[in-house]
């Protein structure tokens, strides 16, 4: 264009070229969209409205938006507001006709130019009525959660995202948490906009952070009021990191830094959810050669987890007002520690020298914690450090000195070797197997076997209350191994046997011994010598572990049953039932009845199934005698609720 021609004439010619689609009208559209001196006249607006189809390109929509914002910031007249609304409407209509990929290009441009607030930052016309528009749109979306409704929903969210990106994402994140079952649908919508993986830098240019993660923090984090909301938050977050087909919207590192690292303290209200997030994130494969964990301070992260584990050694003796994660969470921490040790290696640090220095730093820090914590880092330590254990462990194990070294620990005096051995068995399946192979008991020496068996029971009871469910399962496997090898002596008494059973109980000997060993353990635990050792709140946990073992035992027995062993199985069920009632009678206080009732009913149901499957001629008489015996035992149960429930079940056995 000539500089000598008036602006009005040039713009009129340009608009005529556009209207008539003359030669080079495409180039003229680009000038029309960005030439601020032409903009916002009535003729300019009419040209835009009448030729919208020519402006349905992402680069032209962006130029129009830049022109709109420039004009709006330079002119605040009230009369201009109405014109601003009309121009915005026309540009949004052009944008609406774009493909989803092109809409993402526009959103990227909007975020790059104006950040999270988008057009709302400078356009009052956008801010006015936006919240109502947002509410109405999302209300319609959440009512049509379906594959068919996805395309419509994405189109609606695309329009809102253009106008006010961060408010739209915030609302979507909020609804994903509070709207039951809508989280995956809303995550699919959000993942349709890879442009939202935008990294903001306005607060700290050196440390960019994710817009989506910030919106999640503002909309949901710290406001989750139910377990269901926490589950939906976790699943929503997981989908954003690993969508079915789309590009991930947030990276594992972007999630860990705000939602995990600040909360790995025992008194943090969010710790259990943070640990679940960490576990979920560690399950995501790294897409690059350099693992994402490298940017997340992996060694301090490991130390935080180790300190949490160390706290469990004082679990039942924490101050009353101190919050600490549950023993169920201990298993989660142990799994995370294993996951971390799997993904970490020398390649996660800038140099081999730094790797060795970092290992030495971690080893020094962990040295002040409980000795078992260091054993859990063996996969990470490899051959850099020996296993450090109480000196008394060497008294009962043949430990190779090139791998093991002794510590003098005041809490592990003479006779504590079995306790240390058992704690080692809890650490991992591999260490459990190592301990079983290194244990030295002379089975040809009756006195040694007797002493070992008595010491084993005492050590088992000492470890039991501090075990998580997975650790206890590991210990029960140790007991079963020692019973099968006949290293552990558990005599089976006939206190709940009316008549000598003429049955083949040899295949079930280990199961019967295990059941009676649990009973002996509770007899010791409930005795006067241990009366003040365990606080009242620990009993429910101990009973839950016991009941989970009985359930596993019942499952194991059922798997070994054949048609010829129905009487044997009935006998074992009666024994387990009597042992359980004996334990129930000894327990101090109340509050442990529920898990006991559940398992007792399971045992009676299995007894009923086995006795009905017995086709021998004397079955009817035997069932009548056994039912009478079980009722007599149950009548002596002190817990009224337990007694009533079990007697009701027994009354139906003969029906």
UniProtKB/TrEMBL annotation:
Naming one, the record's GO cellular component terms include: SMN complex
GO terms (BP aspect): rRNA processing; spliceosomal snRNP assembly
Q: Which domain of life is it from?
A: Eukaryota
Show the InterPro entries listed in the entry: GEMIN4 (IPR033265)
Official protein name in the record: GEMI4 protein
């Amino acid at each position: 264009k000539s500089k000598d021609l008036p602006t009005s004439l040039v713009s009129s010619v340009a608009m005529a070229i556009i209207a008539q689609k003359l030669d080079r009208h495409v180039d003229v559209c680009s000038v029309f969209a960005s030439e601020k001196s032409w903009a916002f006249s009535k003729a300019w607006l009419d040209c835009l409205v009448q030729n919208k189809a020519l402006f349905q390109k992402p680069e032209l929509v962006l130029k129009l938006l830049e022109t709109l914002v420039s004009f709006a910031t330079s002119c605040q007249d009230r009369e201009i507001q109405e014109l601003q609304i009309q121009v915005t409407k026309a540009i949004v209509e052009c944008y609406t006709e774009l493909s989803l990929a092109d809409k993402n290009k526009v959103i990227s441009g909007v975020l790059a130019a104006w950040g999270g607030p988008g057009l709302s930052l400078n356009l009052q016309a956008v801010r006015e009525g936006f919240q109502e528009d947002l509410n109405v749109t999302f209300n319609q979306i959440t009512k049509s959660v379906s594959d068919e409704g996805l395309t419509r929903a994405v189109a609606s969210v695309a329009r809102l995202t253009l106008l006010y990106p961060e408010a739209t994402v915030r609302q979507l994140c909020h609804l994903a948490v509070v709207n039951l079952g809508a989280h995956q649908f809303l995550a699919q919508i959000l993942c349709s906009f890879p442009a939202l993986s935008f990294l903001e830098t306005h607060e700290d240019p050196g440390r960019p952070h994710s817009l989506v993660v910030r919106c999640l923090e503002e909309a949901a984090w710290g406001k989750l009021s139910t377990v269901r909301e926490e589950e939906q938050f976790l699943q929503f977050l997981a989908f954003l990191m690993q969508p079915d087909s789309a590009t991930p919207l947030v990276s594992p590192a972007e999630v860990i830094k705000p939602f995990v690292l600040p909360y790995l303290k025992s008194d943090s209200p969010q710790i259990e959810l943070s640990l679940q997030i960490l576990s979920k994130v560690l399950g995501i494969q790294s897409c690059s050669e350099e693992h994402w964990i490298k940017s997340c301070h992996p060694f301090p992260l490991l130390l935080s987890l180790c300190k949490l584990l160390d706290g469990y050694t004082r679990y039942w003796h924490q101050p009353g007002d101190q919050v600490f994660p549950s023993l169920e969470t201990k298993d989660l921490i142990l799994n995370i520690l294993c996951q971390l040790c799997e993904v970490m290696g020398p390649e996660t640090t800038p140099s081999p020298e730094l790797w060795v220095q970092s290992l030495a730093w971690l080893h020094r820090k962990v040295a002040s914690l409980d000795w078992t914590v260091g054993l859990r880092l063996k996969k990470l330590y490899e051959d850099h450090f020996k296993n450090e254990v109480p000196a008394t462990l060497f008294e009962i194990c043949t430990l190779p000195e090139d791998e093991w070294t002794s510590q003098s620990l005041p809490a592990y005096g003479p006779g504590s070797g079995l306790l240390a051995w058992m704690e080692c068995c809890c650490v991992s399946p591999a260490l459990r197997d190592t301990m079983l192979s290194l244990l030295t008991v002379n089975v040809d020496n009756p006195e040694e076997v007797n002493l070992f068996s008595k010491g084993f029971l005492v050590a088992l009871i000492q470890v039991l209350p501090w075990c998580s469910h997975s650790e206890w399962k590991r210990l029960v496997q140790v007991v079963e191994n020692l019973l099968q090898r006949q290293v552990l002596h558990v005599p089976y008494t006939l206190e709940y046997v009316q008549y000598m059973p003429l049955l083949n109980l040899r295949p079930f000997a280990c199961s019967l011994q295990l059941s009676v060993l649990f009973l002996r353990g509770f007899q010791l635990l409930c005795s006067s010598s241990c009366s003040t050792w365990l606080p009242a709140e620990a009993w429910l946990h101990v009973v839950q572990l016991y009941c989970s073992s009985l359930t596993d035992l019942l499952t194991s027995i059922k798997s070994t049953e054949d048609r010829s062993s129905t009487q044997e199985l009935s006998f074992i069920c009666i024994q387990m039932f009597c042992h359980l009632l004996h334990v129930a009678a000894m327990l101090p206080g109340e509050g442990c009845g529920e898990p006991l009732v559940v398992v007792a009913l399971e045992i009676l149901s299995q007894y009923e199934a086995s006795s009905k499957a017995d086709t021998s001629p004397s079955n009817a008489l035997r069932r009548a005698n056994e039912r009478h015996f079980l009722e007599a035992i149950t009548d002596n149960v002190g817990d009224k609720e337990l007694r009533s429930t079990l007697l009701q079940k027994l009354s139906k056995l003969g029906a």
